[in-house]
Amino acid sequence: MATRVQFYHNAEHPLALACEFAARAFSDGRKVALRVADEAMARELDRLLWNFDPLEFVPHVMVDSPLAAETPVVIGRADTPLRWPETDVLLNLADDIPEGFERFRMLVEIVGQSEAQKLPARARWKHYKQQDLRLQAFDAVRREAL
């Protein structure tokens, strides 16, 4: 089965949206990989997941943790080689095409509002389209299909 690809464009706060998606996927019993650009973004996402919802805990670790295979949500950086322990949902917040994305059932691309984020997202869209993958686009603010 080919990877389903969803783009959420126009996200006001991409990391907060990633937290929301990760929490929802976790509550549905899914395993989630969160791919960010660098160490600073990984630390910020980690902090946000701890504080996302005071009534809801989202268990998460960095992908290089010894507990990664047992933890439902893992965070990895695009600037280091990654070995994801699970192949369910990949949330990409980096500007490039995730290596090995085709192992995942679903790839969610979260795109912010700046032109600096939109330009690489257009290139990723084009790449996935050339791969004949099923693409869906959504407005992240209005939460509706485009």
Structural account:
The protein is α/β, with parallel strands linked by helices and 146 residues long. It has one domain (4-145): Rossmann fold, CATH 3.40.50.10110. Helix content is 29%, strand content 27%. The protein has three helices and eight strands, in the order βαβαββββαββ. An eight-stranded mixed sheet has the order 3-4-2-5-6-1-7-8, with helices on both faces. It is globular and about 35 Å long. It starts with a strand and ends with a strand. The relative contact order is 0.26. The mean pLDDT is 94.
Order of helices and strands: EHEHEEEEHEE
Q: How far is the N terminus from the C terminus?
A: 24 Å
Cα-atom radius of gyration: 14 Å
- Under CATH, the homologous superfamily reads DNA polymerase III subunit chi
Give the overall shape: globular
Strand order of the largest sheet: 3-4-2-5-6-1-7-8
